[in-house]
Amino acid sequence: MNRIYLDHAATTPLDPRVLEVMLPYLRDHYGNASSVHALGRKARYAVEECRERISAHLEVAPGDIIFTSGGTEANNLAIKGVLGDNGGGLLTSSAEHEAVLTQAKSRMTSGESVCLLTPESNGGISLSQLEAALTQDVHLVSLMHANNEVGTLNPVAEIAKMCNARGILYHCDAVQTSGQGDVWPAKLGVDMMSASSHKFYGPKGVGWLYVRPGIALTGVIEGGSQERRRRGGTENVPAIVGMAKAFDLAIEEQEIRRAHLLMLRRRLIEGLEAIMDDCFYVLNTPERAEICAPHIVNIAFPPVNGETIDGEMLILNMDMQGICVASGSACTSGAIEPSHVLLAMGLDQATASAAVRFSLGKDNTPEEVDRAVDSLHTIIKRMRKSSVA
Ligand code: PLP
After folding, report:
1. Which residue has the least CA distance to atom 12 on ligand 1?
2. Residue 340 parent element (H or E)
3. Strands 4-5 and 323-324: what pairing?
4. Is 207 in the pocket of ligand 1 (CB under 6 A)?
5. Which of 10, 25, 179, 274 has the least CB density, counted as fewest CB within 10 Å?
6. Whose alpha carbon is nearest atom 5 of ligand 1?
């Protein structure tokens, strides 16, 4: 059975062109970038050359990029690095990724000032709500670009403008959209921005945090002078080399990829609408393509005559058909809980528990999308029938 992978928001496959450039650094050029001998210098050269290429694409200076182990670490570095243990108020939203939300919650628990915005029903934040919440207590705003569960894009440039006007720092988690379009931090006026390589066909376990020059940021991983003392630890040279290549390709192929994703996205939504009458919510619609990341479509099944759909069972059934998609639920303390994002958007527990996230990739085909729609249709019909029986 040919597997159909529609879970690119979770991770993307490694592009073979990326693997190709990584192999020599895994096999032959294994020096530590801090060593002074020839192998070390080779590794150092590679790291700095990658930093230059990435920063040139982002239109920032190489020294503004701190390599990290990925998006989670970049988000931790941005918030902890600026606010420390008691460094002022944080404003974020309850639709953020756990890598931001968990920090917000622990800061709240330890009595620090945290403002948690409730997202609108589409998962994005409201600018008027944000404006009202930007009080003197707020030192740092952390609001993502694309939501990883529903794909809604926050208006980053407008958020940055509001923050800049008040002298408040703005961190943006752009993990889902790095490499996808005009997400250039300096141009947008963003002070810090997180990215992660495995979301754009690079290796896992590597990413970066952009930090605008002049921001006082304290490293959170101590024990080495790497990354200008802002992130200790031996650099993962093969991963950095792979990430830079993946980013080059993402920028080069950006328009083709976007057009392809939008075509697939439209086909997916229209396919679902054609066969599934009125029994699903599309949490983002093609008419609002400009406020959606092109790769994410999240749909949910509300109860019909009181009968609910078990989202986990749905995902397992799709998997048995060879289709990899994600549910909105997460396993928290041993229990399956509906997504915090869907609940924050106002969905009821039963509907939020019956959500499926399709996330498309550059190599998916229209036929794969059609097969996924057919399978979902068959499975939902079977599940509805057996819950009635
Ligand atoms: N932020 C967002 C929006 C994400 O989607 C993810 C991963 O899914 C992360 C942060 C974490 O990134 P990483 O997997 O590189 O730690």
Report:
1. 71
2. helix 340-344
3. parallel
4. yes
5. 274
6. 148
Summarised one tens digit per residue, pLDDT across range 181-225 is 778 899 999 999 999 999 999 999 999 999 999 999 999 999 989
Ligand 1 centroid vs 144 CA: distance in angstroms?
11
Q: Active site includes 172?
A: no
pLDDT, tens digit, for every residue of 39-75? Answer: 999 999 999 999 999 999 999 999 999 999 999 999 9
Q: Which two tokens stand for residue 316?
A: 């397992």
Whether pTM exceeds 0.85: yes
For a ligand 1 pocket test, name from 196, 206, 209, 357 the mutation site with the most ligand atoms within 8 angstroms of its C-beta. Answer: 196
**C-alpha 226 – ligand 1 centre gap (Å):** 23
Starting at the edge strand that comes first in sequence, how are the strands of the sheet with 355-359 ordered? 281-282, 296-300, 355-359, 326-327
- Number of other residues whose CB lies within 10 A of the CB of residue 365: 11
Residue 132: which of 110, 89, 162, 153 has the closest Cα? 162
Token readout for 271 is 């396919």
Is there a contact between 192 and 78 (Cβ–Cβ < 8 Å)? yes
Provide the β-strand partners of residue 337.
Answer: 330
3-state secondary structure 51-80: HHHHHHHHCCCHHHEEEECCHHHHHHHHHH
